[in-house]
Known about the structure:
The chain has two domains: 2-46; 52-105, no CATH class. The protein is built from four helices and two strands.
Amino acid sequence: MTDVIRNISSNNQVNNSGSKPAAKSTDDAASSQKASTASTSANATADQIDLTNAQKVDQVISSLSSEPIVDRQKVDEIKSALAEGRYEVNSSVIADKLIEIDELLK
């Protein structure tokens, strides 16, 4: 674009004739097109999303949804062991598991 008042084009070349400035050289046009293409390909790469992991998560969720939330057989075994007095609590195992959980939360 030419500044009419100062007769200067947007690429800072003085236009003495008052006419439009000369077109860009082929080298300038080629380098401009290369930069534009590189910019477009960089944007295209940044706009891509890999859905492979999301699909795997959906598959795991689907397979787990068919499984029961509670292992009923194990619950019944613990109930009968408690009722009969055969269920033993191992406090050191419980303490170790609590420490593991605490470490994970840090």
